[in-house]
């Protein structure tokens, strides 16, 4: 079986052939080719799939484009906040029928920055929805691009309001987990399990009341959460091996030495069944799916959570969060909107 995805540089051939105990030289760790263009290509592909599935469900371009615009504004809020705080490898990815998310990497994660990033998604959409609602109250029955302004305002508010609920992995749930709970503690794990159970209950009740199988797509959220917990548990063995072999994981991927990359790679191949088709080194050869093992190594490198939110700061965040959730009721918005949306 051929495992060489891309040859290592020619000037390393002698070093690869020599015993490492003699030369002490290792070939370079794997790097993605032109990562920015790859990320944006995946983003546009996911958007195309999102629109295709959306049109299959809605059969109407106007409502599909409106919902896509709401999702895009929401994700751009996260994106620009993460860009401001200098996250790396940023990209927006759409999940058909479920929404979208922004991905990015940063070694030092601040609670304060995380709170701003998480609130930067739903708050702009809530504000837009409230402004549209007030304008509609002054000019009842008005339309924009052929869509009733009332529907636009309610969709803006509704989709972003749901994201503020304290249920993982929604923005509100991530905010609760990151700022108010000790992340990766047993309390955090219980919260994630409860969120998964709530999602299952919601999917079943929505299906029971409407008999629309589409609501079962909500089960993807608890499935992803439980898979994440299982993955985290599975890699505990790897982390113990890294610690016992005194491999420094308190570094960024850019600062990870070539030697440690190949050592961690060998440990992953030995410990994880999913990497059985990868050849351990030496010889030093990239696998066609080397990017997959690179991603796992990046996730194993310790992320530093900076707990920089004081009690006063937490109260302030809680007030903003609670006010945003309560805003439709505080403004006495017509909460019978679900019956008036026409679905």
Topology readout:
Blueprint: H1 13-17, H2 20-23, H3 35-58, H4 61-84, E1 88-95, E2 99-105, E3 108-110, H5 111-119, H6 122-138, E4 143-144, E5 147-148, H7 149-163, H8 171-180, H9 186-210, H10 220-234, H11 236-244, H12 258-271, H13 290-300, E6 304-306, H14 311-330, H15 337-340
Parallel strand pairs: 3-6
Antiparallel strand pairs: 1-2, 4-5
Structural account:
- Residues 1-23 and 338-343 have low confidence and may be disordered.
- The chain is mostly helical and 343 residues long.
- A two-stranded antiparallel ribbon has the order 1-2.
- The protein has a domain at 35-183 and 309-340.
- The protein contains 15 helices and 6 strands.
- Helix content is 60%, strand content 7%.
Task: Provide the descriptors you would attach to this structure in a database record.
343 residues, mainly alpha, two-stranded antiparallel sheet, 15 helices, 6 strands, 60% helix, globular, disordered N terminus, disordered C terminus
In brief:
The chain has 15 helices and six strands. By secondary structure, it is mostly helical. A hairpin with a 3-residue loop joins strand 1 (88-95) and strand 2 (99-105).
